[in-house]
Structure formats: C-alpha cells, structure tokens
Known about the structure:
By secondary structure, the protein is an alpha+beta fold. The protein has helices at 10-22, 55-73, and strands at 2-6, 27-30, 46-49, 80-81, 88-89. The site of zinc ion has 8 residues, from loops.
Amino acid sequence: MTEIFSDSEPVVVGFLQSQLETAGIPCFVRNQHTDASYQSVLFWPTLCITDEGDLDAALSIVSAFALARKAGTQIQGKDWECAQCGERVPASLGECWNCTTPGANNEP
Ligand SMILES: [Zn+2]
C-alpha cells in the first residue's frame, strides 16, 4: 500500500480515485469518512494504491490533476475557512481574500 495523495476535501480525493480506477489502477481511500472538521493533515482522506508497480502511472495522474487545479480548472469544491482570520473563502481561491493566508486544501 502506498499513499499518493491527500486533501482536506473528500470530494477531491474521491475524484482522483475515480480517475485512477478509470485508468485501471487499483486504489482506495483511507479516512474517507473522517469528520471534515479535523484540521490535522493526519486525518485527511488519503488516496492509496495497492500495487506499487502502479506508482508512476498514479503519480502522473495526480500531478496532472494538481496542475489543472492550479490552473483554475479545478473540480467543484467546497468553500474553505481561513485558518488565520476565519473568513469563508470560495473553493476557487488558493488563498484567503481577506488576509492572503494560503488555503489548507491547496497544494504547497
Ligand atoms: Zn484570512
């Protein structure tokens, strides 16, 4: 089992899981039913592959997704709450509109 991706939004992890399954890569999501109010990355839904032989293919799908997401073509997501000031920030924004703190659900 190899962890390849995690995100605070279960919908994002689920989307990637379906992408991998479409590509014929066996995978599953850990922490799928975790309460989203957990802030720690340890409790984020995490996409895992069962066969390390699929690692390269899986990572290429994940990185393509990350790039597309950064480019603004991200899938439907939920608004997030700024950890710094507590404002609601639209899912399409990578950082808080109020205080420019980077979003917790965005890649570094
Ligand atoms: Zn803020």
